[in-house]
Write a sequence for this structure.
């Protein structure tokens, strides 16, 4: 499923625009990235990202990969 479709699906479910979904996801990721929580910090080291903070697409891709790996076990 494309990121565009993911954003549209979530947006439709909550009655907002896809750009709002992406913006809010990016804001939540940025907030979490500044966390002092040791569990969150440990998880962050595993998320591949190009910039200083991962995009929503990078986090979703990482999470989807982990779910797929877990389902294969």
């Amino acid at each position: 499923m494309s990121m565009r479709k993911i954003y549209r699906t979530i947006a439709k479910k909550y009655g907002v625009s896809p750009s709002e979904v992406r913006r809010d996801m990016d804001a939540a990721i940025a907030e979490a990235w500044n966390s002092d929580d040791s569990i969150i910090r440990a998880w962050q080291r595993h998320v591949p990202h190009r910039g200083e903070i991962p995009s929503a697409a990078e986090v979703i891709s990482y999470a989807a990969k982990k779910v797929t790996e877990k389902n294969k076990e």
